[in-house]
Amino acid sequence: MAQSRLEKIGTIFTRVQGLLRGGAMKAEDKPIWYDVYAAFPPKAEPRFDRVAPEVPVKKIFYGEDVVRAKLHRQNKPQETISLLDNRRSSQSQQFVQIYQNLKTQGALDDQKIYETALDLLAEQRQQSRLEATPEEAAPELDTETKTQLLSDFKEASESQATKSSSPPTPPKTKRDAGVGINIDSLFKD
Hints:
This protein has eight helices and no strands.
């Protein structure tokens, strides 16, 4: 059984067990899960032909899911979302927050709350667009870095315009002074 890779013959446990007994796998190379599986075997052996149990899938909805689905169905928010940016909330998150704030006040019915939240979101987005300036768009870059980037961009565009046959040499900056790596020697073959 150890020589077979077919999932229909035995289980992964019995195949690893056969490899260990036959000497094809060293004891130090055995998987981490092997000892746990041997100590606590499952009640039903995990075979390919075992019938899956009929378990009904529970529907899990939160109140905000219904509101968000209604927003996306009717208005289709068009924005680019970066999953790496945790500081900025998405348009649908802002809408749900406004909706929940209005709902806690309890003065309106659901449809009026939805329409009011849409209006407030539009006002908030318009106000944030007016307040944003190019300097605020990149506050983490200081003036020295911006000028360095601008000069690097100009150098690159000039070297690209000349279309010289030799590869352009990178500009020497403070960052390159202590590096000491010759890139050309890395890729010689």
